[in-house]
Specification:
With 186 residues, this protein is mainly alpha-helical. It has a single domain, classed as Orthogonal Bundle (Endonuclease III, domain 1). The protein is 53% helix and 2% strand. It comes from Polaribacter aestuariivivens.
């Protein structure tokens, strides 16, 4: 039996996410946007809640197509509020729409969201060497900076904790503990 990070429960969905996605560097804007949306909806909730609803989010938000989401009319917003398959939080749904608009503004300014976000870590994943749950932080200096920058640009639900979880999810930081089979030594 393979050793996994402390946060992985017995859920097969959690195991698959941990083994196949978490901490794997993501450079395409479409997937980065998907994780940005999922992480903002996760704020205050458990990640397994989001994973269990991920396919519902995918359907409700047009496969996380930020170009479509940025143009959602009020009627689409209202229908999302009625969708029991997702997290029906008015502010989070509204933020998905506005964050899509600001996401595209960053693309215009930097050429891609990927170039923008990965520049915070010099385009290289940070490989941490944590031994236990107690060592893994909820935020970092870099997530603080990213959070402030995104908020200044108009993004919502992008606090430092959300941004650190985003960084972990998209592989900007690799926080697999050293006893985990996914841990990679430099």
């Amino acid at each position: 039996m393979e050793n996994r990070c402390f946060w992985v429960t017995g859920s097969e969905l959690y195991k698959k996410y941990h083994d196949d996605e978490w901490g794997v560097p993501v450079y395409d804007d479409e997937t980065l946007f998907e994780f940005l949306i999922l992480e903002t909806f996760q704020a205050g909730l458990s990640w397994i809640t989001i994973l269990n609803k991920r396919e519902n989010f995918r359907k409700a938000f047009d496969n996380f197509d930020y170009k479509k989401i940025a143009k959602y009319p009020e009627s689409k917003y209202e229908s999302l509020l009625q969708d029991a398959g997702i997290i029906r939080n008015k502010l989070k749904i509204r933020s998905a729409i506005t964050n899509a608009q600001f996401f595209m503004e960053i693309q215009k300014e930097f050429g891609s969201f990927s170039k923008f976000i990965w520049s915070y870590v010099n385009n290289q994943p940070i490989i941490n060497k944590f031994r236990s749950r107690d060592e893994v932080p909820a935020t970092s200096k870099i997530s603080d900076i990213i959070s402030k920058d995104l908020k200044k640009r108009g993004f919502k639900f992008v606090g430092s904790t959300v941004m650190y979880a985003f960084m972990q999810a998209v592989g900007m930081v690799n926080d697999h503990t050293i006893n985990c089979f996914k841990y990679i030594e430099e």
